Amino acid sequence: MMLDVEKVRKDFPILGRTAGEYPLVYLDSANTSQKPQVVIDAIAEHYGQHNANVARAMHMLGAEATEAFEGARSGLAQFIGAERSEEVVFTKNASEALNLAANTLGASLKPGDEVVISVMEHHSNIVPWQLVCERTGATLRWFDITDEGRLDLEGAEREHLINERTKIVSLTSVSNVLGTHNPITDIARQAHEVGAAMVVDASQSVPHRVTDVSTLGADMVCFTGHKMCGPTGIGVLWGRHDLLEKLPPFLGGGEMIEVVEMARSTFAPPPYRFEAGTPPIAQAVGLGAAVDYLSGIGMAAIAQHEETMTAYALDKLTSIDGLVILGPTEAVDRGSAISFNLADVHPHDVMQVLDSRGIAIRGGHHCARPLHRRLGHQSSTRASSYLYTTTSEIDALADALVFTRNYFAPRFNQG
């Protein structure tokens, strides 16, 4: 089923905005996605008609809020193929979900143990593991990348990267800089063969393609709501229920307890053990509406549309003299985030000039500084599409980049 992008765009009120004389061209969805009206309405209705705390308020509004909150949990579980809703833990974002994974799985680490990540990780999947390794004496190791921007699997095998000392492997499913799809299922199999747990940062994959955690091979999967048409302030950690039952709490407080005494406490079963205090209730309602919206369109159709947009964008950008793409230049096993540098022009200058023409992109290291250093770039410019992106927006991007290049580097404008 083909996605009707013009129909989809009508669902997003912000896409009707202009930036001065230019129509808004939003190409920063890897940073945060725009929100359809149904999500905006769901949040407004919750606050206007059903606002109350969940679980602890035993009145009509409390029951309605609890039903909506747990309904969102069930919807998320179905969306990602979880076997039961109790495997879905709500957090405030993917960073908190990854910190939860690091602090609970990492609680039993000791000197001599090893944690494996990769050089292409977002800071959220680097720093928590650095901290837990410093605290426990475990060793942090990582996959390198090839010149094409894919995991160096052969190098990892030569180095015996995943071995009998490995206790945790934590990787991004899709790089937020390179767009690279990683072979998560194969690496999870390697991790499990040596008794290690597999954690996946799926922030750049769950919003864009069908995700089935029951077949992925991971033990924990983390992602965030604001990149998948949902509100900010809510993330998700999925974990195998038998694993979650064995893990200690991450944060202490209300609602994550079973019994509290002055000398000791016992803790609630998953997922509530990991949801201390008042949770992001309205945000969960909004994310539930976003999941319904995406499911109504169809994740397969969304993935197909993005593949088309990515291939079109790569073709347009690779034809621009002086532009260098970071990562794979073909739309094969690749996400929609495309990072690049323009000859003799700083990414912040590119970003500002494009913004003056109504085009929203991102310039910087995209919370992946080690990856940029590995590639020999201080920073980069990133354009990222989503279900509402059109070819005309990609054309506007390409035209604006040529204009920017010629303005800052007039040598390209000679002859």
Which terms summarize this structure?
415 residues, alpha/beta, seven-stranded mixed sheet, four-stranded antiparallel sheet, 14 helices
Description:
It contains 14 helices and 17 strands. It has helices spanning 5-9, 37-50, 60-80, 94-105, 127-136, 153-158, 184-193, 213-216, 241-244, 281-297, 299-318, 347-356, 369-375, 391-408, and strands at 18-19, 22-23, 25-26, 88-91, 114-118, 139-143, 166-172, 197-201, 220-224, 235-239, 257-260, 265-267, 323-326, 337-342, 359-360, 362-364, 380-384. The strands form five sheets. It has a seven-stranded mixed sheet with strand order 4-10-9-8-7-5-6, with helices on both faces. Strand 1 and strand 2 form a beta hairpin. It is globular. The N and C termini lie far apart (46 Å).
Q: Runs with pLDDT <50, length 5+?
A: none
Strand count, sense and closure of the main sheet?
7 strands, mixed
Into which percentage range does the β-strand content fall?
15-25%
For the termini, the CA-CA separation is: 46 Å
* Overall geometric form: globular
Number of helices, counting only DSSP H or I runs of 4 residues or more: 14
Helix content: 25-40%
Chain-wise SSE layout:
Layout: H1 5-9, E1 18-19, E2 22-23, E3 25-26, H2 37-50, H3 60-80, E4 88-91, H4 94-105, E5 114-118, H5 127-136, E6 139-143, H6 153-158, E7 166-172, H7 184-193, E8 197-201, H8 213-216, E9 220-224, E10 235-239, H9 241-244, E11 257-260, E12 265-267, H10 281-297, H11 299-318, E13 323-326, E14 337-342, H12 347-356, E15 359-360, E16 362-364, H13 369-375, E17 380-384, H14 391-408
Helix pairs in contact: 2-10, 3-10, 11-14
